[in-house]
Amino acid sequence: MPDWVVHVAVAWTLCRILRFKYPQLDPANTALVMVGSVFPDAIKISILFELMGLDWWDYLHAFHLPIGAFLLAGIAALLFKEKKTAFLLLSMGIITHFALDLLLIQLGNGIYLFYPISWMGFSLNLVPNDDYVITIAALLVALSVYFFSRWVEKRRLKIT
Ligand SMILES: [Zn+2]
Questions:
Q1: pLDDT in tens, 97-124
Q2: How far is the CA of 26 from the centre of ligand 1 (A)?
Q3: Which end of the chain has the smaller Cβ count within 10 Å, N or C?
């Protein structure tokens, strides 16, 4: 958390802005970044397992650690032809995930960024977890970037 809508919206917005400079971030590659941005929340599969009467929270919690999320990205990247690129794109998404999560007011100890080297939890404690203003703001920013990039692209077409 913040909820996956925010993670995906921020990942998309970032890619769309970076694409002005790095055309490699085409829609297909952007999709990978977006997938990566929700990887750490693979932990939420535990909710499904809980419904089936299994308590897997402790196991799946590993995904919400940078090391677990990057491992998952490494495994997922094996499915792609260009493994290195896929891994980098997924990792980019994962980094945006933890960057956003760091802003949250944490109920626990914060995020163990350097696990297993250190058990120190990090958090900036700025935003409450259930603030939907953030979701709406993230979507509005994404929408503005979308219209702006379309406008830029149209102008480019006119010039060339
Ligand atoms: Zn998270």
A1: 999 999 888 767 788 888 888 888 888 8
A2: 25
A3: C
pTM value?
A: 0.86
pLDDT of 45-72, one tens digit each?
Answer: 777 777 888 777 777 777 889 999 999 9
CA 75 to ligand 1 centroid distance, Å: 20
**What is each CA distance from 124 to 99, 100, 110, 112, 121, in whole angstroms?**
10, 10, 9, 13, 10
Q: How far is the CA of 100 from the centre of ligand 1 (A)?
A: 8
CA of 102 to the centre of ligand 1 (A): 9
Q: What is the CA radius of gyration of the chain?
A: 17
C-alpha 99 – ligand 1 centre gap (Å): 9
